[in-house]
Task: structure prediction
Amino acid sequence: MSEITAAITAVGGYVPEYVLTNQILETMVDTNDEWITTRTGIKERRILKDVGKGSSYLAIQAANDLIAKKGVDPKEIELVIVATATPDMKAASTSAYTATEIGATNAFSFDVEAACSSFLYGMSVAARYIESGRYKKVLLIGADKNSSMINYEDRATCIIFGDGAGAVLFEPNDENLGLQDEYLRSDGSGREFLRATYGGSSYPITAEALENKEHFVFQDGRTVFKNAVFNMADVTQKILDRNKLSKEDVDWLVAHQANKRIIDATAGRIELEEDKVMMNIHKYGNTTSATIPLLLNDYETQLKKGDKLIFAAFGGGFTWGSIYLKWAYNA
Ligand code: UT7
Result:
């Protein structure tokens, strides 16, 4: 561990206004509120309806929320990382546009894409820049407009995903607060179980693919569920063991919000009480790269300096991991 640690010193968040409730979904596909609630824990999600607004729009709102709350001068931000699985466009970095729009004109920027683990991996990347001693302000934003790749005639996926963004600022810390340890993994044999096949470089879009709706997300839910439960619990246990932490030491579990049952299973594995488990899936559904920073934004006022947070995520690829971080400020 280097002498400089990378601490989160501010958070921000944004979700679009339009609320897609379970009741509205009942009118769109063959589903019902009871099934969605008991199988996923989701009651509603937010959708960005405006044509021409992509993930950068969500990222910009979340970043501006952080900038206003923290009172940071955007010109002092040196690096902007946008974690996203739904970039605005091909061939043009979403982060470059985001950085310019928020006034971070002295920053360089790039995107990180690792499906639902994008933000977790982004935390690892952001921390390395701070720990190097060369950078003092790194803005990490998780933003996804999932509605852009969802088939609203497919009940297996349309009930799960929502749109949103969250942002965190990483700064150096000399009290050993901030990121302590990480355990990140991937396994490409999982690719077939969660993917949008057409529209990428392997299979550019065709009229036939559009007709067959193969440019939308497909998920083999059961297989992804089983892998998510096993791996999120496994890495969470590993990070506790490696840092000699007992369940009493953990103040918060900050788990990717994909399914309440997966989060409960992860908390159950380390026998963590329910009131230490951050949860907002009922309000936003699965917002992919935005779930973790939106949790931090919702729970910011309850977090205390020195709190021990265990992060965990699992997503397409497969990608997954866990991070141990000590919170650095009282809101
Ligand atoms: O964040 C990235 C990673 N993603 C995840 O972690 C998601 C992991 N997977 C899941 O969360 C769950 O697998 C789902 C929520 C997607 C599905 O829940 P499940 O308990 O695994 O349901 P299932 O797919 O096994 O389906 C059970 C039944 C089926 O009917 P039969 O075959 O038992 O008659 C489905 O056809 O539920 C049916 N079903 C539905 N019924 C009502 C599937 N979707 C729906 C629906 N409404 N929306």
